[in-house]
Give the backbone structure.
Amino acid sequence: AGDDSVQAGFKAGPCCPRILHSLEIGTVMTLFYQKKSQRPERRTFQIRQDTRQIVWSRNPDKMEGEIDIREIRELRLGKGSRDFERYPEEARKLDGTHCFIMLYGLEFRLRTLSVAAFSEEEVNMWITGLNWLMIDTQRAPAPQQTDRWLRKQFEVMDRSHEGSITVKDVKALLPQINYRVPNMRFLKDKLQEVEARSELSYPNFAQLYRTLMFDAQKNVSARYKLIYIYKAVEEFLTFLFSKENSVCDPRLSPVVPDDMKKPLSQYWISSSHNTYLTGDQFSSESSLEAYARCLRMGCRCIELDCWDGPDDLPIIYHGHTLTSKIKFLDVLHTIKEHAFVTSEYPVILSIEDHCSVVQQRNMATYFKKVFGDLLLTKPVDSNAEELPSPYQLRRKILIKHKKLVEGTVYEEVASASYSENDISNSLKNGILYLEDPIDHTWTPHYFVLTSNKIYYSEETSHYQTADEEEDDEGKEECNNNEQHCTERWFHGKLGGGRDGRQVAEKLLQEYCEGGAKDGTFLVRESETFVGDYTLSFWRSGRVQHCRIHSRQESGSTRFYLTDNLVFDSLYRLICHYRDTPLRCNEFEMRLGNPVPQPNAHESREWYHSNLSRVQAEHMLMRVPRDGAFLVRKRSEHNSYAISFRAEGKIKHCRIQQEGRLFMLGSSAEFESLVDLVSYYEKHPLYRKMRLRYPINEDTLDRMGTTELDYGALYEVRTPHFYVEANKMPTARCTVKALYDYRAQREDELCFPKQALILNVDKQEGGWWRGDYGGKKQLWFPANYVEEVPSSPTRELDESSPLGTFLKGFIDVPTCHVVVHKDGKNSRSFVFTIHSQHLSSHPVQTLDVAADSLEDLTSWVSKIREAAQNADARVSEEKQMERRKKIAVELSDLVVYCRPVPFNEDKIGTERACYRDMSSFPETKAEKFATRGRGKRFLQYNRRQLSRIYPRGQRLDSSNYDPLPMWLCGSQLVALNFQTPDKPMQLNQALFMLGGGSGYVPQPDIMRDDAFDPFDKDTLHVEPITIQLQVLGARHLPKNGRSIVCPFVEVEICGADYDSCKCKTDVVADNGLNPVWVQKQFVFDIHNPTFTFLRFTVYEEDMFSDPNFLAQATYPVRLLKTGYRSVPLKNSYSEELELASLLVHIEIVNAKVCTPLAAELSNQISLLERSGSADVSYQQSLEELRAAQDQLSELVEARNRRLVATSNFYVQSVVQTLTSLFETLVTFNVSIYHWNSRQKNKDCRVSISYKPTIQI
């Protein structure tokens, strides 16, 4: 997402060691918390150089929080954050020059750390030091970054700050960093190699890490004949995976002033849709920070959705929705502050105006007042016949708004046909409640009333402000007196009589057999002192017990070990002694790891000790709700199963007990079944399904149905028919083609992009069968299609305002409403909507609850009014033309971006004015960006601007595919920047080409009149072939509790004729350092000027579903060849710490090979048909292969560049290019400055080419 290098007005230069030393010692500052429940307090803030973190604490023994410096995106002076606004009285007393804010995070919505120092000098010291540290941290060589990461892991385990960790700590850490230990013998052998026994110092730990990393991936070097000589092999392997060896060459994408001197219409311009939103389109927060974030990400076209507000000044929000409102004037000040921090090139404000003429005049006044000279108010050249260039418009803000026709004063008439698909045209919308038929709770749903339908969504969440979300964090904490009950360390009443002490000792002894550290503990109810508790812990090889006293103070129970330190809950007491040492005459010790409860699951309502699979299915068939579940004991030793409903089907998953741990799938480890269920009540177990309804006989009597839902099984079958899960047949489905596919054999399908393939049978091996174009059950590649949801309302999704959120609808013309005077089932404000029978829809009855009487009355009134006037209103609105009044003061500010209705007949004529532009929803743009019409649309975009925006039904703020629009020359392809999806990742990749300036010159071929963006035969560029192998990965992110089973999808994204994707095999249980078997992917690319290479790393979960882990997307023209690292990013395009792939990539000029290869292939085909192919066939075949090899060698020799890598790493010289295949070439690789604390090292590396290696 880019790095903000300019921070708070300070330039980063050499940093005085005195400043860094002062920051390491720390200063006291006032912290304004993000949680509303915590008042501002003074804390000591320090820099940790060895881990590159900011930490703060009340006292040195207890660190309260930390921030990775690599995650800081902006430093901002003053009190401009919500943290200060929560406590205005305290903030008012502070001098603004003594305050600053750190904005940090790896998502679109950044978190804030707001602090107040004692002086302006102290603020300057922090800002100066942090600016230097931010840049230095980003530029640090790979070994330093690895060392910092290792120290962070070590310090998390070293809770006692003794400088050592145990073997048990290491064993617990490895699954957390995605590494599965095969067995304890393996780990013990590795520990012996690093000369560590029961405890490890940091050097031991770091060496263990290097051993694990190298041993797993040294086979890569052997397989590809990289033969190393000295011990620096580990360092060299680290270099290969590092950013310094990146596959992307940033030197090919600088901002060159001469490239910015073409007309605006010849650029792709980074553009945002509904810029103010931080989430979905109907209930998320509108935020000034969203504008700041987009502008700093290089966005150059932002949207302001203006509605009449108080004090005759507009407000900005998504009209007629639950999105929050922000002030127009605040937005202008934010734009001015951040517009030109990242890029000096022009910013376009796309104004969506719903305001009165009075408020429009005020808008114009404040545009001029706030922006001043930055605002463009007159043409750059009044005699020009084309748009000005970005260079001419540097540091200018342009207004895109409808403009009055000359000679008119107030109003313009523009056709705008009424569309119910736009939520802004709804009569009413908001949150109402539907009763859950299973547990009879009321769940929130989003309702939209239009002139002829009431639409309602799937279960959703209340709209919340950020403050309310933070308050909820506190609400999740249970009552102080009960909070300990859910903790792993609390065992309740152990045994009977005086057996509790013996049971506790046995549990601790068994748990500590593996070498647990002192401080391992549990808490139990005291048998001697009723109402008190006992702390049992492990120290010096034996179990000790300590009474936790309780007493009553002011009606509340207090807990303590010593009279002078009292706590208001047992939970807080234990938390304190886990951070602060427990001191007595004989010893001093912190509480460490808790001992989990044994067999706590047996008393839970979801557990069944004697239930078969068939019986479980019978029970779940009576509860037709996703999220219904139970856990049962299987007949096999130490084996359980969780049976649940998801996506309307019943599924089972095995749980295996291994020692004291419970394993779900192959690597998700839990201390108990209770932990497992608790985790998946909060996190998805299968796709989006969380465990929700525990099922037993009592709950069945209360919420179950009498009919069995046989459709929930994988096929309709009798109750007694039973098959194993992995033998269940897969239901057939429908898929949609992502790309064109031309059959290569007679038994394959041929289809165009967007084709629907029916009756699909998913086979193994990447090829499926299906029906299309009259052909039945022929083969096609699975990676060319995507599955279409089999929802009965799928067609309605496209036409309803709720899009894919749609759950159902009611016809307004035939409905009537009845109010329940006494409410229903704990809800006071309930009404029922009855819909009479129509030929196309059955009779419906819907009980709906509102939050208040006022809300209920409003909804009932609007529904009744709509039902009475439905026919007349629909007829009137379908013929309506919207008459819009525009203030002349605002109209005069519009110079170049004048929105007008699109008129295809004007294209290429004198009537087409370069100052006019048109906007298109994606659905309309898709009709132009197609074969047959794309060339015409491109012709329009050569002279005029066009803006594309997402259709109104994308309430989840998802994005459309921008590639066809870019290919047709559309400049302003507006996307939801807050959404971390593939379109936004492609957008980030495209604007790499402009060096983050927000402007990318379109290729010259797009100015060629003969060029058709959808016809590869009109291309006048040289095609290329990319040959690529994925060799390995490091530090893949973890998704949930399981160790990931990764695979990599490699995709070419571009025109339909170039798009293609392949994937590697799955590596089991290794996300730390997986290695893939040799498999070469070959991509033929016809238009490399507009093609992206995209790597997506997925994990295959226990249900064989792919889950996103990481991605990296690059323009093909920025690629470097050879053995290269692919630094991985998260879904928001923020770099992941140390995560990377290692690939081998070759790029060949395919056009040179094609004629000769085609001629030889034709000769071979003729010989085969003539029947005289023996000698001639073999001769031609050998000639073909020799020619291809020779051609590849010549192209490689031509394209090979000697790259002088960073002076921190490798300088290599290739002496001879003519003997690549015959000789062993030795590189003298000088590797030095690997770590600022190490002396220079030399390493001699021999590399055997197969056929070539480029570094």
About this structure: The radius of gyration is 33 Å. The mean pLDDT is 82.
